[in-house]
TrEMBL record, chain A:
One of its GO terms (molecular function) is proton-transporting ATPase activity, rotational mechanism. This is F-ATPase family transporter: protons (Vacuolar). Belongs to the V-ATPase proteolipid subunit family. It comes from Ostreococcus lucimarinus (strain CCE9901). It is found in: Membrane. V-ATPase is a heteromultimeric enzyme composed of a peripheral catalytic V1 complex attached to an integral membrane V0 proton pore complex. It holds the Pfam family ATP-synt_C.
UniProtKB/TrEMBL annotation, chain B:
This is V-type proton ATPase subunit. GO terms for molecular function: proton-transporting ATPase activity, rotational mechanism. It comes from Ostreococcus lucimarinus (strain CCE9901). V-ATPase is a heteromultimeric enzyme made up of two complexes: the ATP-hydrolytic V1 complex and the proton translocation V0 complex. It comes from the Eukaryota. GO terms for cellular component: proton-transporting V-type ATPase, V0 domain. Subunit of the V0 complex of vacuolar(H+)-ATPase (V-ATPase), a multisubunit enzyme composed of a peripheral complex (V1) that hydrolyzes ATP and a membrane integral complex (V0) that translocates protons. V-ATPase is responsible for acidifying and maintaining the pH of intracellular compartments and in some cell types, is targeted to the plasma membrane, where it is responsible for acidifying the extracellular environment. Belongs to the V-ATPase V0D/AC39 subunit family. The keyword Transport applies. InterPro entries: ATPase_csu/dsu_sf, ATPase_V0-cplx_csu/dsu, ATPase_V0-cplx_dsu, V-type_ATPase_csu/dsu, V-type_ATPase_csu/dsu_dom_3. Keywords: Hydrogen ion transport, Ion transport, Transport.
Length: 211, 342
């Protein structure tokens, strides 16, 4: 990240931002004749199929969670392997760090299953092709809940991975530190659960029903 | 993402670090009366056991140091084998310092008329390069460059600034210091391209090394024919004392003047408290080790590899001092040369 904000790229980024800002302001100010036709975009947005949003939500829930878990496992795993060369006793104890990371992926899978059971077929209005507003709302809710769970688990996985890697190194140097760092790791893995809880509450409002 | 490439090497380095000799080890080693005792102690009580096991009876100090060097290169090589760019480049930079040391060792050995084998035996394996044996047959600076250095990474450090012709003792010292200065500056440029963590830690460590370099040159140049302007040219273009402190160091003529400059810097104030001439040097070593220890407290950066190599080197220096003291039966001076931190 610091590499991007370095040296010659700063004016380029600044120019891009200015250009985007001008585009947005000009587009908003002059109704109808601006660069961007907001009314038309809004219509376009409301006609997006709620099943598309639902599917994206489910994909985000499982995909981002697994990415977080994998990230955590390779951070922990590589340190664990290196440390275990000199102190083999830590391997089985520190597998628990890897399991913590794995749990993050399981949260994502659980949410994905809960979300996919919500999906039911509701036909759109045969005349206009539009969906009923409760159906649209259900689509957005599933999307938001999947995204919440996915992002929470992504960062939770990284967090547990970094702590787990330190745990392996600390345990190799001094065995008494293991339990202490494990407590920190448990707090780290609780972060993912917050995302899961919010995701479940969000998705409980989502009902695909015929009206 | 650091760990995907470098996690294994980092953990390996930390594993090695936990097996360094401790305060207690040094205390017990100091009680040994013969080199055989030292060997037995290292074999039973430390991680050197597999390296010193095969030493035959009469043990010479050189043999023990060679065993230490074997362990050093074994540990270092595991890192090198696992490393990919940019860590591999970083580790290469670490070896350049040893290459300079080896070069100087070879040149000094040549001046004293030692055989090629005896010289190569003393060289550190980390900084070994193929044309090292060509160093001993060169008779002038130009020849040295052409025969030995042109294909090594040191060539770029060498070319610009060395104008001397003959290889006498003063010139060798000059070559060492010029090369080391260029090396430090180049390393600093390289580290500035790294990620933020590495950059910050390495800046601190290299600044300290640059200060140490400057202070050493100043102390060693008293009573030689090195002019003040030349001395100023040997200092690096960075460091905690740069630029003001270096400018003042260049004009010093006695140890007391150096001390008066050092007092102004909080980190060096401790060094000025004793009248013993070796105290500053020893104090600088302790300071460096402390800085390296702090670097090891952080994770996910390259500075730990630098710190690791410094710790290795320090341990070898300690053992070298210890074995020499025991071999020459001067145990009273044991404490002066052994440096460690908890």
């Amino acid at each position: 990240m610091p590499g991007i904000l370095h040296g010659r790229s700063i004016p380029v980024i600044a120019a891009l931002w200015t250009f985007t800002l001008v585009l947005l302001v000009r587009g908003t100010r002059t109704e109808g004749s601006g660069f961007i036709d907001w009314a038309r975009l809004w219509v376009l947005f409301t006609r997006i199929n709620p099943y598309f949003f639902s599917a994206m939500g489910i994909a985000a829930a499982v995909g981002l969670s697994v990415a977080g878990a994998a990230w955590g496992i390779f951070i922990t795993g590589s340190s664990l392997l290196g440390a275990a060369v000199h102190t083999p006793r830590i391997t089985s104890k520190n597998l628990i760090s890897v399991i913590f990371c794995e749990a993050v992926a399981i949260y994502g899978v659980i949410i994905a299953i809960i979300l996919s059971t919500k999906l039911e077929y509701v036909p759109s209005d045969p005349d206009t092709g539009a969906f009923h507003r409760t159906t649209m709302m259900a689509g957005y809710a599933v999307f938001a809940s999947g995204l919440t769970c996915g992002l929470a688990n992504l960062v939770c996985g990284i967090c547990v991975g970094v702590v787990g890697s330190s745990c392996a190194l600390a345990d190799a140097a001094n065995p008494t530190l293991f339990v202490k760092i494990l407590v920190i790791e448990i707090f780290g893995s609780a972060l993912g659960l917050f995302g899961v809880i919010v995701a479940i509450i969000l998705s409980s409002n989502a009902v695909f029903e015929k009206v | 993402m650091f760990n995907a490439k470098n996690g294994f090497s980092e953990a390996h380095v930390r594993g090695c670090q936990t097996k360094r000799l401790t305060k207690q080890n040094y205390a017990e080693l100091s009680r040994c009366d013969t080199l055989e005792d030292i060997k037995t102690y290292l074999q039973t009580m430390s991680d050197y056991s597999e390296y010193v096991r095969d030493l035959q009876a009469p043990v010479r100090p050189v043999d023990i140091i060679e065993c230490c060097r074997k362990r050093q290169i074994a540990e270092f090589n595991i890192c090198c084998q696992q490393a990919s760019s940019p860590l591999s480049n970083f580790l290469e930079y670490l070896t350049y310092g040893y290459m300079i040391d080896n070069l100087v060792l070879a040149l000094n050995g040549m001046l004293r008329g030692r055989t090629t084998e005896a010289i190569l035996e003393k060289c550190s394996p980390i900084g070994f390069f193929d044309s090292l044996s060509a160093v001993v047959v060169s008779s002038s600076v130009q020849e040295l460059y052409r025969l030995a250095l042109v294909d090594t990474p040191l060539a770029s450090y060498f070319s610009s600034s060395i104008k001397a012709e003959d290889l006498d003792e003063l010139n060798i010292e000059l070559i060492r210091n010029v090369l080391y200065k260029e090396y430090l500056q180049d390393f600093m440029v390289f580290c500035n391209k790294m990620d933020q963590n590495t950059r910050q830690l390495m800046e601190k460590l290299l600044s300290m090394e640059a200060d140490r370099h400057a202070i050493r040159i100043t102390l060693n140049s008293f009573g030689t024919e090195l002019s003040k302007a030349d001395r100023r040219n040997l200092y690096t273009n960075f460091g905690t004392m740069y630029p003001d402190g270096f400018a003042r160091l260049a004009n010093c003529e006695t140890v007391d003047e150096v001390k008066r400059i050092l007092v102004a810097y909080p980190e060096f104030r401790e060094l000025t408290k004793s009248d013993d001439p070796h105290y500053i040097d020893r104090g600088l070593r302790v300071l460096e080790l402390e800085a390296c220890g702090q670097a090891l407290d952080e994770q996910f950066n390259f500075a730990i590899f630098y710190a690791f190599v410094k710790f290795q080197e320090n341990e070898i220096n300690n053992l070298m001092w210890l074995t020499e003291c025991v071999a020459q039966r001067q145990k009273s001076s044991l404490g002066e040369g052994i440096v460690y931190i908890q």
